[in-house]
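Bump. Still looking for Type I restriction enzyme HsdR N-terminal domain-containing protein structure tokens.
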Amino acid sequence: VSILELVKNFTSLTPQKLSEFLSTTLALYLSKYPSVKVFVNREQIDPTAQILFDTSYKLDDVVYCDELHSYELQVIEWKSAKENEIFLCDKEGFPLISYEKKIRGTSTYSYSVYLKSTHLTKLSHEGTLSLMDLEPSLSPVLNKVEGLIKEHFRKRDHEKSRELIDKWKNEGVYPYVGKAENIVEDAERKVFDIMAINVIKYIPQFDNGDLKLKKFQFKLLRHIVGSCPDDLRTILEEVLSLPKEKQTELAEILRDASLSAVISVSKIITDRLKFISGLENVLFHQNTRKVFKERSQLHKIMADNTWFFGESFTLSVNDKSLTEVLRVHLEKQGIDIPVDEKVTRIDGSVGIVDLMLTRSIGKNYPDEREHIIIELKAPKVNIGQSEIEQVKSYAYAVAEDSRFNGLKTKWNFWVISNELTTYALRELKQKNLPEGAIYQAEEMTIWIKTWSQLIQENKHRLGFLQNQLNISYDREDGLQFLKQKYAEYTEGVVFENESQDEYID
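Sorry for the wait, here they are.
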């Protein structure tokens, strides 16, 4: 075969390029049939001399046209830099077509992938192999192949990283000691390893720097991984200054490994458990319960933690009038009409609602909503007749105002405090009402809640995850959490080193 009059800068068929192309394309075929020899400029091509690592994987069989076809995936890593390719081959490994698919997270390797099956040969004969993902019988296989390739190089990364991590341990700069205590720390270590190894990869001089500085920087990275996993993206962009492609690649590795999610969930659960512990302290300690104020302290803290009242609810109204409740109610239902006339209670006064929480009922009822109107009381205030009449006045105002009617909505009205008077206890003894309810009609229910009841419900709800993630905390952790996160609202309230017998059961 002679090819003449090529353009001057045409390089694809230079001896070196042609040799590399034939080596990767025919690697499996030439290894299977050693009697077949291929020469370029009288030099024999020997792909085996260029192989750094070679492994194979069995895939699930495929039934096509009532015939069973086995599949095998072979991954070859090359010693020298080559273009990464995926070949769809016959069962002998002879390439039928190249699969133009770039696998993220593998760009630091030089490799070729060979997918072998009689199924591919049959599709080639039928002229449908070139459809690739659009061929129904082939699409699931290609999806599996992509996952296997990612998993292969993830394991290879892990193998290569062990040597580097052992080096850091010997230098005394690795920020973890011993084995991971639980699945959260195990996930944290893996994320740290991924980030640290990529720091070295893209900033090589980092590993050759001063050991004291490197130890400090590794401690800082560990803190970010364990406490602020969402900031990892900022590190990729601003600290490492990685190209967009590399940022996406590394972010996908973290996402595929589900590691950041474990850390994030663990932090959320830990913070919530500490919050509950701290809230329990200030609500029931003999000293703090006397000075803890409803509007300027308790109200502001709880408005920032609406999950405490129900995971699926979001804050809709905060310290606003019943008229604002109506506006939000109509807005949530997609009704755009002006609210010119105020909503008032039966006595004509304007009620101010502490909190209003809202949620959609569910996928099967997209137009239905549920609201919770919450009246918070300071722990020193017992729920009695006046507190009950107050929350009832809000409920009756909604029931009597026709602008609230005609929409699919469930209304719940809560009044919450530490203790109940005998009047409240009698209200709770009404027959044919759910436990804790003092009024129910159509889609409206009025409830009396205690802080101890809500705290126990939240502890129970979070208890399973706490056990699974092996999260531990104590009373002091809860106090410190409230002091640090809500310093402006807890000044003069949170006490340290409080004795156990000063708490009210």
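The chain is about 45% helix and 20% strand.

Edit: fixed formatting.
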